[in-house]
Amino acid sequence: MNTVAKTSNIRYKCISQVNDMSKIVDVNLTEAQNELFIWIKNYVKEFQHSPSIRQMMQAMNLKSPAPIQSRLRHLQAKGYITWQEGKARTLKLVDEIINGIPIKGSVAAGGLIETFSDVEDRLDISEVFDKKGVFALNVNGDSMIDAYIADGDMVLMEPVKDLAYIRNGTIVSAFVAGMGTTLKYFMKKEGKIFLEAANVNYEPIILDYNEVQIQGKLLAVWRKI
Predict the structure, then answer these.
(1) In whole angstroms, what is the distance from residue 99 CA to residue 35 CA?
(2) How many separate domains does the chain show?
(3) Is 189 within 8 Å of 209 (Cβ atoms)?
(4) Are residues 60 and 113 in the same domain?
(5) Active site residues
(6) In angstroms, rounded to a whole number, what is the distance separating the alpha carbons of residues 161 and 149?
(7) Triad 203, 206, 211: Cα angle to 5°
(8) DSSP of the chain, one letter per residue?
(9) Rounded distance, CA 93 to CA 91, Å?
(10) Which of 90, 91, 132, 213 is 20 to 30 A from 188 in CA distance terms?
C-alpha cells in the first residue's frame, strides 16, 4: 500500500473515531483543526515522522495548501504543535515532549567530580506543561542570542493576561500590529513599553501601551542538539 493510501485510511479511521467517541474532540479547536490534528497524531504514530503539506492536503481532500497552513498556524498558536512555515518536515507535536528525564548525578562546571554510575532520580517537567495555556513558539533570528536563545530553538511560553504582573526584564512574546510577533525583554519606563533585544545589533522597539499585546512570558527553552 502506498503512503497516500495509508494516510487516507488513517484519515477515515480518525473521522470515525470522532463520530463514535466525541470525547476525543478538543473543544479548544474548530472541527477542521480537530480533524487535521487527530490525523497528524495518527500519522506520526504510524510513520514516526511528520507529514508533508501535500500529504495533509490529500488527507483533508484539499487542492490548495492555504487551508492547511492556516490550520497549522492556529494549532501552533494554541500550543498543540510547533512548526516552521516554509521548512519541510519541521512539524512536531508538543505533547510528545518527555515528562520524566533521568537525573544521572552531577557534572562539573569548575573542578572535576566523580562521574555518574546509576540513575538516582527523574526530572519531572510535567509541572511546566500543566500550567494552563502553555504554548510553544519556534525562534527565528538571533535577536536574543545573548540570552542564550538561538535561531531554531523552541521556547515554551506561559500566557499573560495583565501587563501589571510583568516585571521589567521578563522575556516575553509580544504581538505588534503590522510587525508580527517578537521575542524580547519587556521593560516599562517613561510611560512607554520597550521591547529590548539581547543583541547589540538590534535597536529597542518603543511602543505605547495600546500598540502591543503581550502574549506570553518565557518558561523554558528547548534546543535540539
Answers:
(1) 26
(2) 3
(3) no
(4) no
(5) 143, 184
(6) 24
(7) 135
(8) --HHHHHHHHHHHHHHHHHH-GGGS-TTS-HHHHHHHHHHHHHHHHHSSPPPHHHHHHHTT-S-HHHHHHHHHHHHHTTSEE--TTSTT--EEGGGS-SEEEE-----SSS--PPP-S--EEEE-HHHHHSTT-EEEE--SSTTGGGT--TT-EEEEEE---GGGPPTTEEEEEEETTTEEEEEEEEEETTEEEEE-SSTTSPPEEE-GGGEEEEEEEEEEE---
(9) 7
(10) 132
Q: Are residues 140 and 199 in the same domain?
A: yes
Q: Tell me: the pLDDT tens digits for 129-184?
A: 556 677 778 888 889 999 998 888 888 888 887 777 889 999 998 888 877 888 99
Cell of 153: 530553538
Please indicate, yes or no, whether the overall pTM of this predicted structure exceeds 0.85.
no
Indicate which CATH number applies to the domain containing 24. Answer: 1.10.10.10
Packed helices 31-47 and 3-20: angle between N→C axes, nearest 10 degrees = 130
Pair 205, 157 in one domain:
yes
